[in-house]
Amino acid sequence: MPLNLQNDENTTGGYIKYMASTGTWMKSEKMPDGNFGDVEFKFHQAVFDLANIQTGWGLLQKGQAPEWVMDESISKRALKPTDGREWKRGFKVSIFSQQMFEGVVEWSANGAGANDGIGQLYRAYEKKWEELAFSDNGDSCSASAAEGKLPLVQFDGALAVRKGMGSTNVPKFSIVEMVDAPAELSQQGELAVEVGTTEQDEFPE
User: Fold this and answer.
1) Which tens digit of pLDDT belongs to each residue from 31-78?
2) Where are the alpha helices (DSSP H) in 29-111?
3) Bridge-partner residues for 180, per DSSP?
Protein backbone atom coordinates (compact mmCIF):
# COMPACT_ATOMS: atom_id res chain seq x y z
CA MET A 1 0.00 0.00 0.00
CA PRO A 2 1.48 3.43 -0.87
CA LEU A 3 2.12 5.82 1.98
CA ASN A 4 -0.65 8.36 2.54
CA LEU A 5 1.20 11.59 3.30
CA GLN A 6 -1.22 14.26 2.16
CA ASN A 7 -2.88 16.63 4.61
CA ASP A 8 -6.62 17.10 4.92
CA GLU A 9 -8.99 19.43 6.71
CA ASN A 10 -8.76 17.41 9.93
CA THR A 11 -4.99 17.72 10.15
CA THR A 12 -3.74 20.74 12.07
CA GLY A 13 -0.37 20.54 10.34
CA GLY A 14 1.20 20.69 13.77
CA TYR A 15 3.83 18.57 15.41
CA ILE A 16 5.02 17.64 18.87
CA LYS A 17 8.49 16.99 20.21
CA TYR A 18 9.67 14.88 23.12
CA MET A 19 12.55 16.59 24.93
CA ALA A 20 14.71 13.74 26.18
CA SER A 21 16.95 15.93 28.34
CA THR A 22 14.02 16.98 30.54
CA GLY A 23 11.37 14.33 29.87
CA THR A 24 8.93 17.03 28.73
CA TRP A 25 6.89 17.81 25.61
CA MET A 26 6.71 20.72 23.19
CA LYS A 27 4.10 21.47 20.52
CA SER A 28 3.91 23.88 17.61
CA GLU A 29 1.52 26.73 18.28
CA LYS A 30 0.58 29.94 16.49
CA MET A 31 1.99 32.96 18.28
CA PRO A 32 0.44 36.46 18.58
CA ASP A 33 2.67 37.70 15.74
CA GLY A 34 1.22 35.05 13.42
CA ASN A 35 4.32 32.89 13.34
CA PHE A 36 4.54 29.38 14.78
CA GLY A 37 6.74 28.53 17.75
CA ASP A 38 7.31 25.70 20.20
CA VAL A 39 5.56 25.81 23.56
CA GLU A 40 5.75 23.31 26.42
CA PHE A 41 2.60 21.38 27.30
CA LYS A 42 1.47 18.62 29.64
CA PHE A 43 0.86 15.37 27.78
CA HIS A 44 -2.18 13.59 29.26
CA GLN A 45 -3.98 11.17 26.94
CA ALA A 46 -4.27 10.85 23.17
CA VAL A 47 -5.09 8.29 20.49
CA PHE A 48 -1.96 7.01 18.71
CA ASP A 49 -2.33 5.77 15.11
CA LEU A 50 0.03 2.86 15.68
CA ALA A 51 -1.70 0.92 12.89
CA ASN A 52 -0.05 3.32 10.44
CA ILE A 53 3.20 4.16 12.22
CA GLN A 54 6.11 4.66 9.83
CA THR A 55 9.74 3.79 10.52
CA GLY A 56 12.88 4.74 8.67
CA TRP A 57 16.14 6.68 8.70
CA GLY A 58 15.89 10.22 10.00
CA LEU A 59 18.29 13.15 9.85
CA LEU A 60 17.26 15.77 12.41
CA GLN A 61 19.64 18.70 12.64
CA LYS A 62 19.16 21.97 14.49
CA GLY A 63 18.01 24.80 12.26
CA GLN A 64 17.29 22.51 9.30
CA ALA A 65 14.18 20.78 8.03
CA PRO A 66 14.05 17.07 8.98
CA GLU A 67 14.97 14.58 6.27
CA TRP A 68 13.61 11.04 6.13
CA VAL A 69 14.15 7.88 4.13
CA MET A 70 11.14 5.78 5.10
CA ASP A 71 10.96 1.99 5.24
CA GLU A 72 8.73 0.21 2.74
CA SER A 73 6.92 -1.23 5.78
CA ILE A 74 7.66 -1.73 9.47
CA SER A 75 9.02 -5.17 8.59
CA LYS A 76 11.09 -4.14 5.55
CA ARG A 77 13.90 -1.74 6.40
CA ALA A 78 15.19 0.80 3.90
CA LEU A 79 18.89 1.00 3.14
CA LYS A 80 20.74 3.51 5.30
CA PRO A 81 21.86 6.58 3.30
CA THR A 82 25.61 6.59 2.69
CA ASP A 83 26.20 10.33 2.30
CA GLY A 84 28.35 10.57 5.43
CA ARG A 85 25.73 12.39 7.49
CA GLU A 86 24.38 11.21 10.85
CA TRP A 87 21.28 9.25 9.87
CA LYS A 88 19.60 7.36 12.70
CA ARG A 89 16.66 4.99 12.99
CA GLY A 90 13.42 6.74 13.88
CA PHE A 91 9.67 6.89 13.40
CA LYS A 92 6.66 9.04 12.53
CA VAL A 93 3.23 8.59 14.09
CA SER A 94 0.00 10.59 13.92
CA ILE A 95 -1.66 11.41 17.25
CA PHE A 96 -5.16 12.73 17.90
CA SER A 97 -6.41 14.78 20.85
CA GLN A 98 -9.08 17.42 20.60
CA GLN A 99 -8.22 18.74 24.04
CA MET A 100 -4.44 19.03 23.64
CA PHE A 101 -4.07 19.63 19.89
CA GLU A 102 -7.52 20.41 18.49
CA GLY A 103 -6.99 17.63 15.97
CA VAL A 104 -4.15 15.55 14.60
CA VAL A 105 -0.45 16.22 15.07
CA GLU A 106 2.66 14.30 14.07
CA TRP A 107 5.36 13.04 16.41
CA SER A 108 8.59 12.15 14.65
CA ALA A 109 11.87 11.36 16.37
CA ASN A 110 15.08 9.39 15.98
CA GLY A 111 16.57 9.66 19.47
CA ALA A 112 17.34 6.70 21.68
CA GLY A 113 14.88 7.66 24.42
CA ALA A 114 11.94 8.24 22.07
CA ASN A 115 12.70 5.05 20.14
CA ASP A 116 12.72 2.98 23.34
CA GLY A 117 9.45 4.53 24.48
CA ILE A 118 7.58 4.03 21.21
CA GLY A 119 8.98 0.51 20.88
CA GLN A 120 7.63 -0.50 24.28
CA LEU A 121 4.27 1.10 23.48
CA TYR A 122 4.03 -0.71 20.15
CA ARG A 123 4.67 -4.08 21.79
CA ALA A 124 1.86 -3.36 24.27
CA TYR A 125 -0.38 -2.36 21.35
CA GLU A 126 0.34 -5.61 19.50
CA LYS A 127 -0.63 -7.56 22.62
CA LYS A 128 -3.88 -5.62 23.02
CA TRP A 129 -4.70 -6.04 19.33
CA GLU A 130 -4.17 -9.80 19.54
CA GLU A 131 -6.35 -10.02 22.64
CA LEU A 132 -9.18 -8.44 20.66
CA ALA A 133 -8.56 -10.41 17.48
CA PHE A 134 -8.36 -13.90 18.99
CA SER A 135 -11.33 -15.68 20.46
CA ASP A 136 -11.52 -16.68 24.13
CA ASN A 137 -10.21 -20.18 23.43
CA GLY A 138 -7.21 -18.76 21.58
CA ASP A 139 -7.69 -21.16 18.67
CA SER A 140 -9.28 -18.86 16.13
CA CYS A 141 -8.77 -15.33 14.94
CA SER A 142 -11.50 -12.78 14.31
CA ALA A 143 -9.72 -9.72 12.96
CA SER A 144 -13.07 -7.96 12.70
CA ALA A 145 -13.15 -7.61 16.49
CA ALA A 146 -9.96 -5.55 16.37
CA GLU A 147 -10.61 -3.80 13.06
CA GLY A 148 -10.53 -0.03 13.33
CA LYS A 149 -9.34 -0.07 16.94
CA LEU A 150 -6.51 2.18 18.13
CA PRO A 151 -4.96 2.69 21.57
CA LEU A 152 -5.91 5.56 23.84
CA VAL A 153 -2.49 6.23 25.34
CA GLN A 154 -1.53 7.88 28.61
CA PHE A 155 1.86 9.44 29.28
CA ASP A 156 3.15 8.21 32.64
CA GLY A 157 6.31 10.28 32.94
CA ALA A 158 9.90 9.54 32.00
CA LEU A 159 12.49 7.07 33.21
CA ALA A 160 16.17 8.02 33.29
CA VAL A 161 18.33 5.25 31.83
CA ARG A 162 21.95 4.72 30.88
CA LYS A 163 22.79 4.56 27.18
CA GLY A 164 26.36 3.67 26.43
CA MET A 165 28.56 6.44 27.86
CA GLY A 166 25.62 8.73 28.50
CA SER A 167 22.00 8.79 29.61
CA THR A 168 18.53 9.66 28.38
CA ASN A 169 14.95 9.89 29.61
CA VAL A 170 12.65 7.25 28.14
CA PRO A 171 8.97 8.28 27.87
CA LYS A 172 6.70 5.79 29.63
CA PHE A 173 3.28 5.08 28.17
CA SER A 174 0.31 2.92 29.11
CA ILE A 175 -2.73 1.94 27.08
CA VAL A 176 -5.92 3.06 28.81
CA GLU A 177 -8.16 1.17 26.38
CA MET A 178 -8.59 0.29 22.73
CA VAL A 179 -11.05 2.67 21.09
CA ASP A 180 -12.66 3.13 17.70
CA ALA A 181 -10.32 5.12 15.47
CA PRO A 182 -11.38 8.78 15.47
CA ALA A 183 -12.68 9.96 12.12
CA GLU A 184 -9.81 12.45 11.99
CA LEU A 185 -7.30 9.56 12.02
CA SER A 186 -9.38 7.19 9.92
CA GLN A 187 -9.19 9.69 7.07
CA GLN A 188 -5.39 9.66 7.22
CA GLY A 189 -5.21 6.23 5.57
CA GLU A 190 -6.28 2.62 5.74
CA LEU A 191 -5.54 0.83 9.01
CA ALA A 192 -3.08 -1.97 8.31
CA VAL A 193 -1.61 -3.61 11.42
CA GLU A 194 1.35 -5.95 11.10
CA VAL A 195 1.20 -8.08 14.25
CA GLY A 196 4.13 -10.49 14.96
CA THR A 197 13.86 16.33 17.49
CA THR A 198 16.60 18.15 16.98
CA GLU A 199 17.64 17.64 20.58
CA GLN A 200 20.34 15.14 21.43
CA ASP A 201 19.09 12.16 23.44
CA GLU A 202 22.37 11.02 24.92
CA PHE A 203 24.35 13.07 27.41
CA PRO A 204 28.01 12.00 27.76
CA GLU A 205 29.36 12.19 31.28
Assistant:
1) 888 788 899 999 999 999 999 999 999 999 887 889 999 999 999 999
2) 98-101
3) 149
Phi, psi of 113 (to 5 degrees): -65, -50
Nearest-10 Cα torsion for 104, 101, 124, 198: 90
DSSP 120: H
Q: How far apart are alpha carbons 81 and 69 in whole angstroms?
A: 8
For 20-38, how does the pLDDT look when each residue is reduced to its tens digit (9 = 90+)?
999 999 999 888 887 888 9
Dist CA 111 CA 132 (whole Å)? 32
Mean pLDDT of the chain: 83
Helix or strand (DSSP H, E) at 91 = strand 88-97
Closest to 201 (Cα-Cα) out of 17, 3, 5:
17
First vs last C-alpha separation in the chain: 45
